[in-house]
């Protein structure tokens, strides 16, 4: 029902190079790619508070900017629709049973890259490190991937619109894009250890282009390039 509700017809004109089209405010789409603009949400270069603990990767305004890498002025339900238009298949956010059992989020695997000024794109995971050891997020054995979970419809409407949860680091059960691990954002359950990478994260307010690409599309292109 959610897919049918948010689906937007999208037809791509055949061109030599993929062309992005703004199909919703601030959201640019082609097959297997969604892009939008944001800005660095936190200040991890302040001498007094250099360690900025993270729970979100990308958030909407007036929500969790203080614990998010990027803030973007787009509506979460519009991001869901843009991902559908680009060919991504949603799954479901993490669920928590009455006995506390956690089922990881599901959905198409995707890659989030960040582009700052004229620099090369970097994976969003590179902006996250473990506080004590300064080891990257991708080195943690529990970390595996990000997926198009797709949030949920509740009596409040599209849950991510109410919470501003665009892409999470620790699952909240409402985010559009979710990690496929079940790390809790409650400190009494899982100790906070992930902070912003001061070596890579720009100054607060710096402009960032966010690019979301399909792992399936990338694999398909790689397979074709190896054909005899």
Description:
By secondary structure, the chain is of the alpha+beta class. The protein has one domain. The protein is built from 4 helices and 19 strands. The chain has helices at 2-6, 76-85, 159-163, 215-225, and strands at 21-24, 27-30, 33-40, 56-59, 68-71, 90-92, 95-96, 102-103, 106-107, 109-115, 122-123, 128-130, 146-148, 153-154, 157-158, 165-168, 177-179, 194-196, 207-214. A hairpin with a 2-residue loop joins strand 14 (153-154) and strand 15. It is globular, with a radius of gyration of 17 Å. The termini are far apart.
Which features would summarize this protein structure in a list?
228 residues; alpha+beta; eleven-stranded mixed sheet; two-stranded antiparallel sheet; 4 helices; 19 strands; 31% strand; disordered C terminus
Compile the SSE list and pairings:
Layout: H1 2-6, E1 21-24, E2 27-30, E3 33-40, E4 56-59, E5 68-71, H2 76-85, E6 90-92, E7 95-96, E8 102-103, E9 106-107, E10 109-115, E11 122-123, E12 128-130, E13 146-148, E14 153-154, E15 157-158, H3 159-163, E16 165-168, E17 177-179, E18 194-196, E19 207-214, H4 215-225
Parallel strand pairs: 4-5
Antiparallel strand pairs: 1-2, 2-3, 3-5, 3-19, 4-16, 6-9, 7-8, 10-11, 10-13, 10-19, 12-18, 13-17, 14-15
